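Human: I would love a firmer grasp of how sequence relates to backbone shape in proteins. Could you go through the record with me and say what the backbone is doing? Here is the record:
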Amino acid sequence: MRRLFALLPVLSCQVAEAPRSPDAGEPAPRPVLSGVAPSATPSTFPTTTPSAAPEVPAPAACQAPSLTATDPRAGRDEEALAHCAFDRSDVPTLADRCGQPGADRPVALARLDEAVPPLDEATTARVRSLLAEGKRQGRSTNGFGLVGDSITASPKFLRPFTDPRLVQLSDEVRAALALPDGTTVIERFRRPLYGVLDAYVAPRAAKVGAPSFWALRPTPSRSPVGTLVRQLSPAVAIVMYGSNDATTNQPGLAELVTGFREHMTAIVDQLEAAGIVPVLSTIPPHTGDPARPLCDRFPGDLSNWRIAVQTNALSAAVAELACARALPLVDLRHGLDALSDAGIGPDGVHPNAHRGGAGKLDAQGLQCGYNLRNYLTLRMLRQLAPLLDAP
C-alpha cells in the first residue's frame, strides 16, 4: 500500500478544488492526463484502431426521476429565467456540517436508490453490444475510466475505496453492493487497471474548471478522452459535465443547451467507437455562490438564479441523451434532491463530504454529497458487474 500511494503524485491528476464557481472560460490545457505523457503508454495497452460504434438502438424507456421535478427551483427554460425563485433563505448555513449534530437529515436508502433505476431491456442490450465491441478491441473489464470536471477530479470521488481502512459501510449498504461471491463491488474494482493502480486511483480525464468541450480538444485522439482510451483502455467510463458549462453567458438558453448536447454527444460517440460503455450522470444543482447576486440585476447577468436554471437545463439534457442512446444513467441530481442543501457545500457548487471521509457510506455519511455520489456510482457498477463478467 505504501508503494501504491507513493506513486500518486506522479500519476494522479491535479485535484485541488476551486474556492469559487468553476471557470468555463479557461483555455483547454495540454490534452494529457496530468502526469502521464502520451509517449509513456505501456506496451500492454491495446493499440487496436477503434471501429465504428455499434448501431444506435431505439430510445429506452426513460427512467430519469429528475426530469419530473416540479419544484420552482428546478425550472429549466426561458420562462423560469424570468422569475427568480431564490431568496436569502436559500443561502446554505449548515452545508459544511452534513451528517453532524444539528444538521442531521437521514434519508431512506430506498429513496436514494431511485437515482440508479434497474437497467431496462434496451439499455442492457446496448451495454452488451458495447462490451462485445470492447472485448474485440481489448478493453479491460477490471475497472473504469472517469471523465469530468473538479467534481470528478476530486480525491473525495471514489479514491477512498482503494484503501479498506477508509471505507465504512452500513449493513444495508453492504447488502446493496454485494456480489454473489460474498464480496462487494468495491473489492471487484480493486483489481489492477493501470500498472499497480486500481481504477479508484488511476489517472482521470478530469480537470478543475473544465467544461464539456475540454474533453475533446485539440483532436479526438490527442484529447483527454482519447488519452484515457489509449492509456487505461477501460470497458466503462463514467462521464459528468455541465457545472462549468452552466456558468457561461450564452446568447440564449437554447443555444447553450444545443452546444452542450453536441459536446456530450461527441464524447459518447468517441467512447462507443472505442468499445467503451459511457455511464452518464446528471449534475448537482447550483445552490448559491455567496460571491454572486441571487437574481439578475440586468438582462443576461450571471446571477445565482441564472446559473441555477442553466444548470437545470444541462442536467436535463444529460438525462435525455442517456435515454435517447439507451445508456446507463446515474441520476445524481435526483439523489441529491433528498439531502439537506442538496448535498452541496458553502460555495454552492461542489458537493460536501462527511467529516469522517467520503468513504463513509452509512446513515450519517449518505447525508453528504460526495458520499452519496460515491454510493450511487458503486450501485451502478454493481448493476454492470454481471455484464462485465459475462463470458
User: Anything to note?
Assistant: Residues 84 and 295 are 6 Å apart (CA to CA). The longest strand covers residues 140-148. Confidence is low (pLDDT under 50) at residues 1-51.
